[in-house]
# Entry
Amino acid sequence: MSDVPRRVLVLGGTSEIAGAIVRELAASGSCEVALAGRDEKRLRYAAQRLQGAGCMRVETLALEASEPQGHRAVLARGIELLGGLDLVVLAVGVLGERGGLPDDVQLAVEVLDVNVVGAGSLLLESARALRELGAGTVVVLSSVAAERPRAANAVYCASKAGLDALAQGLADALVSTGVRVMVVRPGFVRTRMTRGLPVPPLATDPETVARATVRGLQRGAQTVWVPAALRWPMAIVRLLPRPLFRRLPL
# Structure
């Protein structure tokens, strides 16, 4: 792949999926990375893995997703560290409590704060920064859960739906600016966040998501489904009458 993004900023730098994406990129060409997150220990571990995978340089910087007032400075610092920016991987997100009406409403609000307000702010700031630079791509890690929120995890699904909608709208708004937004919608991915949960059919892993993401970058995709086969059943689910949808074992 001759057009590998060389300078990559990962927002949510401890994400296993984002790490796999960067390793996949590094396997195809030189790569310099800045990992932004709040857990210093995990950031250092993620940086070591990327260096071991062949990344030329890996920097780390602090990021609080729930503090939008600091997001512009994080983008500016990432650009400064890398000497420019080709790709932003937006991997901020928390799962929260499963179920419909949560027992802990405050925790549910925190999920919305991180996944919608925080991630949305980072997406807007990333798009703004790349537009000022004149080019670049934002990869937004969404979820098939964004297609139709379900009772099994209403808050998380709604939060992903909000971010996904913003990303799709921005992709259209920026189409003639040299800035591209690509949404990645995985199904169930086996990671730290999903450990201990029942594993459904078509479950996947970070490396599979990474390969699909890089292929999407290569072909200029706007939306990437992982696995690709999920696109069609989800199209049907989206159109089901609500009484029938409620009966599905989702």
The CA atoms of residues 63 and 74 lie 7 Å apart. The beta strands are 7-11, 32-37, 57-62, 87-90, 136-141, 179-186, 223-226. The domain at 7-245 is CATH 3.40.50.720 (Rossmann fold).
